[in-house]
Amino acid sequence: MNRLLLTFFTIGYAITIQAQSASEFLIQAASFKQKGNNIEAAKLLNKAFELDRSNLEIKKDLADILYLNKKYFDAIPLYEDMIKTDDKNVEYLARLSEMYSMSPRKQKGMEYADKVLKLKPTDANINKMIARAYFEVKYYPKAIEQYMIAEKAMPNDLDIPYKIGLCNRKLNKFYDAMIYYIKAMNLDPNNSNKIYEAANSCYDANNYKMAVELYQKAEDKGYFKSKAFYDNWAMAYEEMKDFEQAINCYMKAKEYSPFDKDITISLAGAYMKKGDFNKSREVLDEILKINPKDADVIYTKGMSYYKAGNTSRAEVYFNQAFDLDPSLKSLRYTKSNF
């Protein structure tokens, strides 16, 4: 009898401790979250959820912290469970749209975004979230529409103008893209990546003068120097017919990839435009020493002779190139780079 009673009280005590532990984990998690330690907060909320899966507060806090930690695979089922009883919660739906849009099931993200729009959201952060969902499924006009709604309410948001610029660039609306990339740069003036993208957008919009200024600014702000960076800068100078500066930039690009064929051909083309045909052939010969049967380089060397007025010598190289790659015949004397 005493043994049975002891067992009963032991079980009851264990149940009480278990319930208290879930509550304690929840309180501890809130403390860590307040301190900005979302990783530790997530661990504690997971423990609380394991002890009390029916507790809606724990489920919501766990879903939110997983979302903030970008653990979308774990967060999605929690939010989907919650919308079964709260199917008009625009925040849950918007987060589901955003998370699905970054998963292999992107179309599901757009479906949730459409549900949010039907509920007519009034929070600009919600518009921003569903804009991302539309962007990820490449529905750029809809993404722009939602980003612009969000921008009206959050004009100082550092991310929105950049995303609008990116959407316009995807739609080949280069002037509009340039406007928003510059706006993004002005909001975040020390962000070298945004300066670089603004420079690229100026190039796309044929605003070459501003492009070269912004490439210089990006370099000054410490943008990651690379072959692509200096190649883009060189092309902007070429469009301005400043071939000396273009050559300087192509030479810097070559420092990162000394035997890159495309960069070498572009450099040779810049020398040709400057009228320095001997130097053009010198840089091409660097590649031909490594690969003497590179048809593109041989053709370009022929073009350097042709542009210099030595058509007989040019024909020798053209014919060599055509033998190696007959498709080059369509470019005879017309290669636009030169």
How do the helices and strands line up, and which of them pair or pack?
Layout: H1 2-34, H2 38-51, H3 56-68, H4 72-82, H5 90-101, H6 106-118, H7 124-136, H8 140-153, H9 160-170, H10 174-187, H11 192-204, H12 208-220, H13 227-239, H14 243-256, H15 261-274, H16 277-290, H17 295-307, H18 311-324
Helix pairs in contact: 1-2, 2-3, 3-4, 4-5, 5-6, 5-7, 6-7, 7-8, 8-9, 9-10, 10-11, 11-12, 12-13, 13-14, 14-15, 15-16, 15-17, 16-17, 17-18
Describe, in plain words, how this protein is organized in 3D:
- This protein is mainly alpha-helical and 338 residues long.
- It has a domain of 109 residues: Tetratricopeptide repeat domain (Serine Threonine Protein Phosphatase 5, Tetratricopeptide repeat, Alpha Horseshoe), CATH 1.25.40.10.
- It has 18 helices and no strands.
- The chain is elongated, with a radius of gyration of 30 Å.
- The protein starts with a helix and ends in a 14-residue tail after the last helix.
**What is the approximate shape?**
elongated
What is the terminal-to-terminal distance?
Answer: 103 Å
CATH topology of the domain at 230-338: Serine Threonine Protein Phosphatase 5, Tetratricopeptide repeat
Secondary structural class:
mainly alpha
- Specify the biggest β-sheet: none
Using DSSP, what is the number of strands? 0
Q: What is the chains' assembly state?
A: single chain
Low-confidence stretches: 1-20
Question: Over all CA atoms, what is the radius of gyration?
Answer: 30 Å
What's the CATH class label of the domain at 230-338?
Mainly Alpha
- CATH homologous superfamily designation of the domain at 230-338: Tetratricopeptide repeat domain
